[in-house]
């Protein structure tokens, strides 16, 4: 019986510009030598293939819009943060370069999972937040994060008042290669097994050991959205408390990100964040524009067979109805140009030449929302 042979496929040597960086880092390592070992230079070379700006801006924006709409529907607290210095996450994951990395599976960018956000906040509440008493602290922990029967004074199991979401970048991130220089590796490996002077020389935590450079991947610059929603159950008293808890939790999360940081190596100063007010204002304005557009679409009416003109002086597109009503699309944000580009090339050319042209248009008040060519009979 003839057995088919699989077609040979060459291993990619370089990551494509639009490739998923997480998939490349995790599955396409190609720096093994002929003995299947990885040298120090090979590790740096591999990390350098990912350095620079990573992430598809359009995909990230779509995810951001979806999460913003979800957050709005849940009454979530949303804040924006930016890295204060390097951020590393998932270093304990297995990888040929010794240190792994946590990637969002579809976006291919680093992120902080919801479980990590919840763990960071709980650690802050337990160790750093001021409480009047241990009873108050335990009550807050049970209310925010959920209660386990017979622990921290809880009488029964219950879900917490807060719903946590992944902290995802709002724009492409900048990655870089960083270096750690441990010089007491043998102490960590064999420190508990020192039995003689011979063992001591090699394994003692002393200053005669040489540092061992270890390259690892970090986020050099990124902007993240954090979102915490109240768990609403339809009970007025509970839901009011849950909303208050969500607001208070976001305040504490902001402090935790600023003072203790998120991800790996926080004791060395990694993972600190500060609030990103300009980003928050920009997203707020964008959401307002989307809501305005939605309301306009709902109230829009069709103007059939209207004349259309383009004002070269100010870049305005104007349509005039049969009863002399007018609607406009302006140059700002490329709206007028975008509408022109939806028409056939011949129609667009005639309009730009100030020829007499008729189109069908969707209008809300005096706002021109869309135009289309009149179908030929």
Task: Give the N-terminus to C-terminus distance in angstroms.
Answer: 63 Å
Q: Provide the helix percentage.
A: 25-40%
The biggest sheet, with number of strands, parallel, antiparallel or mixed sense and barrel status, is:
5 strands, antiparallel
Low-confidence stretches: none
The radius of gyration is 29 Å
Using the alpha-carbon principal axes, give the shape: flat
Portion in beta strands: 15-25%
Q: Would you list the SSEs in sequence order as H and E?
A: HHEHEHHEEEHHEEHEHEEEHHEE
Number of strands: 13
Mean pLDDT: 89
Which structural class do the helices and strands define?
A: alpha+beta
Given the structure, what is the number of helices?
11
Number of domains: 2
